[in-house]
Write a structure and sequence with these properties.
The chain is α+β, with helices and mostly antiparallel strands. The chain has helices spanning about 90-105, 115-120, 145-155, 210-215, 235-240, 245-250, 285-290, 325-335, 350-360, 380-390, 405-415, 415-420, 440-450, 480-495, 515-520, 520-535, and strands at about 5-10, 20, 30-35, 60, 70, 110, 135-140, 160-165, 180-185, 190-195, 200, 220, 255-265, 270-275, 300-305, 305-310, 315-320, 340-345, 370-375, 395-400, 425-430, 430, 455-460, 465-475. It has 16 helices and 24 strands. α15 (about 515-520) packs across α16 (about 520-535).
Length: about 550
């Protein structure tokens, strides 16, 4: 379809998913769908360590007092039982009345209390299973649906967890007893692609990779690219301020968000930011909302920055004998003033796991794998210098300048987590340290693994100091082994000791709340709590989560 503000282009998406492309600064009035579910715009729960991603079975949790429990037992969630933020357990009749209020507020077909549907929508990829079952699932198709849900929830004191793709790794979209799941999968339209302004206006359910593919059809690119880009969504990326492979050069999601349309807890709609690249009027509410994990409002629209496609891209694959040598190469790249678009590291154990899962032969070239990509007008010259730096430290370096040969190298990095999931229940850490401390962090993680006897596999966005030490435990165990908890606690403390953070891109959710106060400090922590209360006085948006 087309509109006065733009003309239709072939995006490679289904016909119903083609966005209207505008060559003028005027926003298109056309609304067209983008395939795929909405992203996770919420966060969840109480405390502890990131749980299994995509694995079955229960996940042990740590409550606010530090004691462990299995995921099947009741732990404190800060939700006040079935009664919502105010506490107090509701009777079955009262719960039925609340459920009916949501049914009446929404159009037919957009509310369900079917247990099977609830179970299909109540969890995310973290593996955390909160106790009890939500009241129901609301399926939003437009902003008015979100407003209706939040107005009822606010009036009735019902917790709301926003959910879509469910790819979050910190318990962000795991909904417990007495709450409501707000599913935004139907809000998946790319409203506009403006070549002149270099922006896209989208709804939260647009799949990240689909947006990038649509932008590429008109010579632009949406650069945030988490490893889950093919299944995660813009809404989820905004909620957690997601990172990805190209963070070192292009930044995290926040750097690509110019403005937001948000429904507050009371149903009021606000717009933040602007479609201009520059703008400093008022407080930066857009930046505040990005990464707030669904605790300040529900994102229903986003104006996103697009960038020109790079003129050239060169991919280097370095194979090293040790992690230390690979980290030294990354440090040398920085010292030489090279800012790679991608610098991804897989340690020796992860390399072997990828080979076993995919049939690749990475380990035949070297124990440790480092993927480096340069892009832009100076990509070839930067790659020449980077290749020399890697070659001085690596066993071998392979170079690619086309998608056909670069694709399998990038695929090997993306396959890392699925490959580890085959080995057991993965507990994913997400620490980040100053780049000068990267070598120390990697070495200390290896020492922690040896000291605790825990299997730890490390992959990293090496150029920005973001490490993912992944603990693998027996999926058949009813509770997490004490040694795994001990290792996790040491890894979190390590990050703080080195001047880093407990989460570089996955968010706090429920599973890292225990360590958040230690990172923020009491005064900053209190200020953030008061700020949250200003946005959501009734405390219905993911209560007990994030802070």
């Amino acid at each position: 379809m087309s509109s006065e503000a733009g003309t239709e282009v072939d995006t490679g998406l289904p016909a119903s998913a083609s966005p209207v492309v505008s060559a003028s600064p005027v926003a298109s009035a056309g609304l067209v769908a983008s395939a795929g579910p909405v992203g996770v715009t919420g966060s969840a729960g109480t405390v502890g360590l990131v749980g299994a991603t995509g694995s079955a079975g229960t996940v042990g949790l740590v409550d606010s007092a530090g004691s462990t429990s299995s995921a099947g037992s009741v732990v404190s969630t800060g939700l006040g039982g079935l009664g919502g933020p105010g506490g107090g357990r509701r009777s079955e009749a009262a719960l039925a009345a609340v459920a009916e209020a949501f049914a009446v507020a929404l159009p037919v077909g957009r509310w369900s209390t079917d247990p099977a549907i609830i179970d299909a929508h109540r969890l995310d990829r973290s593996g955390w299973i909160p106790p009890g079952r939500p009241l129901g699932v609301a399926f939003a198709r437009e902003t008015a649906d979100v407003q209706s849900v939040l107005r009822v929830a606010s009036a009735r004191g019902v917790p709301v967890t926003v959910r879509g793709a469910g790819t979050g790794l910190a318990g962000g979209a795991a909904a417990g007893a007495g709450g409501v799941v707000l599913d935004l999968a139907g809000m998946n339209r790319i409203r506009e692609l403006s070549v002149a302004d270099g922006v896209a206006v989208v709804e939260p359910g647009v799949i990240t990779a689909d947006l990038d593919a649509a932008a590429r059809r008109v010579g632009l690119s949406y650069v945030p690219d988490p490893a889950s880009a093919s299944i995660s969504t813009v809404g989820g990326n905004i909620a957690t301020n997601a990172g990805g492979l190209r963070c070192a050069k292009y930044g995290v999601t926040r750097e690509s968000v110019l403005g937001l349309e948000v429904v507050l807890a009371d149903g009021e709609v606000i717009s933040t930011g602007r479609r201009t690249v520059k703008g400093v009027a008022g407080y930066d509410l857009t930046g505040l909302l990005v990464g707030s994990e669904g605790t300040l409002g529900v994102v229903v629209g986003a104006t996103l920055r697009l960038r020109p496609l790079p003129r050239a891209t060169v991919t280097l694959a370095g194979y090293f004998d040790t992690v230390g040598a690979a980290v030294d190469a990354v440090t040398a790249l920085g010292a030489a003033g090279i800012v790679p678009a991608v610098a991804e590291l897989l340690d020796d154990r992860t390399v072997r796991a990828v080979d076993a899962a995919t049939g690749s032969t990475l380990a035949a070239h070297g124990a440790v794998f480092l993927l480096v990509q340069t892009d832009g007008a100076g990509a070839v010259e930067e790659a020449d210098e980077a290749e020399a730096i890697l070659a001085a430290r690596a066993r071998v370096v392979h170079r690619s300048t086309d998608d056909a040969t670069a694709g399998p190298l990038l695929a090997a990095r993306v396959a890392a987590l699925p490959s580890l999931e085959r080995l057991g229940r993965p507990l994913i850490e997400d620490i980040a340290v100053p780049r000068s401390q990267l070598a120390t962090a990697v070495a200390r993680v290896a020492e922690i693994a040896t000291a605790t006897g825990v299997d730890i596999y490390t992959l990293a966005h090496a150029a920005d100091g973001n490490l993912h030490p992944i603990i693998i435990v027996d999926p058949a165990a009813p509770d997490l082994p004490p040694a795994a908890w001990h290792a996790a606690e040491q890894i979190f403390q390590l990050a703080l000791d080195l001047g880093g953070t407990i989460t570089g891109e996955h968010g706090v959710g429920v599973l890292k709340r225990r360590w958040l106060a230690a990172e923020l400090g009491p005064h900053s922590h209190d200020l953030q709590r008061r700020l949250r209360a200003a946005f959501d006085p009734a405390g219905i948006l993911n209560p007990g989560r994030a802070l």
